[in-house]
Design goal:
Structural class: alpha/beta
Oligomer: single chain
CATH architecture of the largest domain: 3-Layer(aba) Sandwich
Protein name: Phosphoglucosamine mutase
Helix content: 25-40%
Family: Belongs to the phosphohexose mutase family.
GO molecular function, one term: phosphoglucosamine mutase activity
Pfam family, one: PGM_PMM_III
Largest sheet: 7 strands, mixed
Number of domains: 3
Number of strands: 19
CATH class of the largest domain: Alpha Beta
Distance between the termini: 23 Å
Strand order of the largest sheet: 1-2-6-5-3-4-7
Radius of gyration: 22 Å
Number of helices: 15
Cofactor: Mg(2+)
């Protein structure tokens, strides 16, 4: 059981002891620190914060704790209930709110939950802002409101519909072409809020959705990370239903992966590649993804005459780099699409709409579209951290060992070889070291990952 306190929020497993797990006391502690930070940003009579959650089992309990903590500080809460991370992000700006909290542990299993914290732009807090919240927790510098100054909770369950309306209004979402294509698509909503939002979007686009695990009970029917080894049921149903393709999202709907009409994975790395190809075919501009993402995005960007830039891992880092380079599309290779024309946040719903537009305009099936892109293969492995392990020292040793390869140490250690690369970094969300590799074949990518796991274990 684990509690991870970081600049990106608080994430942990439900139950157990205070300070060691995500208990009710820890939820109140960090919600109050966030509330104090919000109040410190701007002096005003009434601060407002949007709060929403995915469907995981602990969500309702944690949401009530968080909302009523904010109420106790005199903050007005807009309760959007069962929602998606990108929907809450958009609700912050639509409400002209001072911030937002999303209660979700993203791809983590059901025993996990987290407070993901937003600023008044509906974007994740940067490192300095996150550190201020940690400092408030350490100092206990929180003042609660007197009885006549308590906040209140207003329920607004319209934001998924409003989010979809904004997507339909985007110039590059070709609603007419999508409707003419008469697509049939299987949706795996992993029994969370994707099971609400994705079918609604598809129906609005004239697509026939076939629902798989779309009941938002929070009882995930498989590991919620949208990887091939977890998606056997979706892959089978796409074939059985003679569907055009399949869609899977994670519990909070900011990661997106596709299955082609043959029941084969499109490849989560290629979600961003395909959407970027479509956007760049209509809009001149640059792209950004993180250091752990495929080289294929660089290739597609350069084909369209743009410039590709790699950022440190983490949505806030990608967004910062996108703003600096005026990128028209970006995201993360784990299936996270960031389309600034809508908002600066990973958004599976806009990713689906742009992907459907691409398919409808090309009049090409999904397997043929995948075959049209440069082929790279990735291996994504991890090593569980043990108590007392000095990860920074370990990564320094790897940097020294491969100094002749000019390793990039912006975020962990990335070593670029002639036809492959390896990225080693400590996870921000789990007690693990991630080992990502890419090479011209799956066997080569796996072999490279295993080689570095062996080298790391030799140092440990």
């Amino acid at each position: 059981m684990t509690l991870i306190k970081s600049i990106s929020g608080i994430r942990g497993t439900i139950g157990g002891k205070q300070g060691e797990n995500l208990t009710p006391i820890d939820a109140v502690l960090y919600a109050s620190a966030y509330g104090a930070w919000v109040q410190s940003q701007r002096e005003k009579e009434q601060h407002r914060v949007v709060v929403g959650r995915d469907a995981r089992i602990s969500g309702a309990m944690v949401q009530q704790l968080v909302m009523n903590t904010l109420v106790g500080m005199g903050i007005h809460v807009i309760d959007v209930g069962l929602s998606t991370t990108p929907t809450v992000e958009m609700a912050v700006t639509m409400e002209h709110a001072d911030g937002g909290i999303i209660l979700t542990a993203s791809h983590n299993p059901k025993q996990w939950n987290a407070l993901k914290l937003l600023n008044n732009k509906g974007e994740f807090l940067n490192a300095a802002e996150g550190q201020k919240i940690l400092d408030i927790v350490d100092k206990g510098a929180v003042t609660f409101a007197e009885v006549d100054a308590l906040g209140k909770i207003t329920i607004n369950d319209a934001y998924i519909d409003l989010h979809i309306d904004e997507i339909l209004d985007l110039p590059l979402v070709n609603v007419e072409a999508i409707k003419k294509a008469n697509f049939k698509v299987v949706v795996d909503g992993v029994n969370s809020t994707g099971g609400i939002a994705v079918p609604l979007l598809l129906e609005a686009l004239g697509v026939h959705p076939v629902k798989l695990y779309c009941d938002p009970t929070g009882h995930f029917p498989h590991n919620p990370e949208p990887l091939k080894e977890h998606l056997g049921d979706l892959m089978k149903m796409v074939v059985d239903e003679h569907a055009d393709f399949g869609i899977v999202v994670d519990p909070d709907v900011d990661r997106l992966a596709f299955v082609d009409q043959k029941g084969e994975m499109f490849g989560e790395e290629y979600t961003l590649v395909a959407v970027a190809d479509y956007v760049l075919s209509h809009t001149n501009g640059n792209t950004v993804s993180n250091m752990s993402s495929s080289r294929a995005l660089r290739d597609i960007t350069e084909k369209h005459g743009g410039t590709y830039t790699a950022s440190a891992v983490g949505e806030v880092n990608v967004v910062h780099e996108m703003k600096d380079t005026n990128a028209v599309i970006g995201g993360e290779g784990n299936g996270g699409i960031i389309y600034p024309e809508l908002h600066y946040g990973r958004d599976s719903l806009v990713g689906i709409a742009l992907f459907l537009s691409h398919l409808a305009e090309l009049k090409m099936d999904v397997s043929a579209l995948r075959a049209s892109y440069p082929t790279y293969f990735m291996s994504k492995k991890k090593i569980q951290l043990t108590p007392g392990l000095d990860v920074d020292s370990l990564l320094e040793k790897m940097t020294t060992k491969y100094a002749s390869e000019n390793p990039n140490t912006i975020d962990g250690v990335k070593i670029d070889f002639e036809d492959s690369w390896v990225h080693l970094r400590k996870s921000n969300t789990e007690p693990i070291i991630r080992i990502y590799t890419e090479a011209p074949s799956q066997a080569a990518a796996d072999s490279l990952a295993d080689r570095f796991i062996g080298e790391i274990e030799g140092i440990i």
